[in-house]
Amino acid sequence: MRLFIALDLPEGVRDALRDLQGRFRALGGAARWTRPEGMHITLKFAGHADAEKCSAIRQALGGISSNEPVAMQFRGLGFFPNERRPRVLWCGVRGSANLARLAGDIERALAPAGIKPEARAYVPHLTFARLASSAGSGRLVRAVGEAAETDFGATVEREFYLYESILKPSGAEYKKLAAYSFVKDAV
Fold it and tell me: Domains, the chain, ranges and CATH?
């Protein structure tokens, strides 16, 4: 199994992103658009796991807790690595301080299960599209620049999920394997 841990999006945010995607698709180009129903905020990519490792991951995730939920606002658009060489079109995520802490807690909890820690700092984002090349992307880059500060909505989350990523010729499909309520009631 190919596993990752993520937060979900509210339907209002998905709808706003779906609408903008429709406008951008009309510009043409060689972009592969992320299906809105599959969009999520990745907290940790765990990689391939057999049944034993999956069980260890499930157990480790059960111990994650916080005193407060994660607040997120979905705003802004940009490209990785940059506008001159656009490979990934992303939607920005501005999260409360405990979003990065949650990702770090998950990182540390999974280390004993053999999941390697990330070398890079955690940067929350939504992948909106992937571009095979920058050829013919000029119209899209200009349109993204004009919509760069678009606000797509906000949410407050109290649960994260363990997902399986199933790779298919039509694109990845995601299956929820488990839900984890990480906000513990204060005593």
Answer: 2-181 (3.90.1140.10)
